[in-house]
User: What shape does this take?
Amino acid sequence: MDFSSVDRTIADLETCLKTTREVSPTEELLVGVDLGTAFIVLVVMNSKKEPVACAMEFAQVIKDGLVVDYIGAMTVVKRLKAQLEERLGRELERAAIAVPPGTGESDCKTHGYVVEGAGMEVTNLLDEPTAANAVLGVEDGVIVDIGGGTTGLSILEKGKVVYVADEATGGTHLSLVLSGAYKVSFEEAEEIKRDYGRHKEIFAAVRPVIQKMATIVKGHIKGRNIKSVYLVGGTCCLTGMETVFEKELGIPVHKPANPFLVTPMGIALSS
Ligand code: ATP
Assistant: This one.
């Protein structure tokens, strides 16, 4: 699969963390809210499906896909919404949201209440790997979304999701391992992990956890004729993740240049 156009659009979206593309006062805007274990991200796209603005904040208000601090989550979404409205000179009225695969109905509702409480009507609720596929456009294969708390996966056949799963191992677990290995706080371990310059150095310490993530995926795709795997989610930014997966699964593994913003963008595209 050629990721060059995906990579270009994601790079464009990354730019929109700092810059804002002009929008007309009447243009329809697509808004996505990603309530993650590690980050809350708001993405705004224009009617041509081009990124126009993006804002994010590190927040520990969601755990394994569940809202554990409702007021905290709502406050962050409100703050990010206000920032983007100020930058765009427009009110953001509607948004799509996504949850990890298999999230129960009442927890889905809570995600919705957070966004509604922040002043936006929820237009769509989808699972995270399906949102990612709005960007990737995978017809056959498995999308693996590794965020802060969980490893989620969606198996696609002829463009349709036929199986979803989500298990509790994500980037937070890598940071906990690093915190122990380097004898630093969790926050410092997060910083070290997100530093691309240190990925090579930390790889041996975090490899067993990555191996576990690959084993989770292997268990779920067992007995199916899967020909390709696509890695998304912030944790997949880790350099070399794909080689561990490829070795464990024995299937070609693809990763866009920046897997972090794929799902948030897909949520906006699905609004
Ligand atoms: P979840 O999907 O589990 O609810 P989330 O939506 O917050 O969580 P993402 O935003 O996709 O998940 O990813 C967050 C994780 O990605 C965090 O653990 C963060 O430390 C990690 N991460 C972000 N950037 C990098 C990087 N450059 N290198 C390694 N890990 C990274």
About this structure: The pocket of adenosine-5'-triphosphate is lined by residues 34, 36-39, 62, 65, 128, 147-150, 170-172, 190, 193-194, 196, 233-235, 237-238, 260 (CB under 6 Å). The two ends are 25 Å apart (CA to CA). The first helix runs from residue 4 to 15.
